[in-house]
Amino acid sequence: VKEKQVPRENLLILGVPCRGIVDLKKVEAALDGNEPADGEIAEDGAITVHIEGGEDIKLGRDEVLADPCKDCSYPNAPVSDIRVGEEIPEEQRQPDFREIEDFEGKSPQERWDAFAAEISRCIRCYACRQACPNCYCSVCFAEQTQPKWIGVGTDLPDVMIYHLGRIFHQAGRCVECGACVRACPMNIDLRLFTRKMVKDVRELFGYEAGISIEEPLPLCAFKMEDDESFITEP
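and the corresponding structure tokens:
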């Protein structure tokens, strides 16, 4: 709707309160190779996993909660026409950007080297793109042939350009759902880099994605009070 891809009047938006989701990768790591039979989630969010031929493994909510859910201040859908279920009391949390600040504290070369080292594990499966609700282009720039921007192999420069392009496309759009990280079979910490975009957009434009339909997108609008220091002090 915000990007004029579908008329608002054509949609009926259902809002479902969310207490957070389980990160299955965290559960698998906690099982330490044990084969699960099934499991159950208690009211407090704790998980009990029944092991084939072994003792149950109990995991606390904080042990298995997806990382984006720990910072979420919007358990109830900010925008909806119909709300399903009982609303959850909201608590305005300050986002924890300490990891991002540590990354920002490195020199440009150190940041580049860290990015290259993390992205070097990419196998170009595009799972991050397929899982992302904001990657909806009919033809991705990474696969265009007229013009052809980058190669489709796993040479590091091509892989890095693909991820840089995808990450910058998330500026003002990423809602920090973490779907890209959960989908990545190589466990690449993509959230470190997308959250850098989220932090920059918050600081430069005072904007949060997914909160308002009426508020214009930060990269499609101009305010007189916008910081212009990047022009003279890049």
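(Above: one complete record from the training split.) The chain is about 35% helix and 10% strand.
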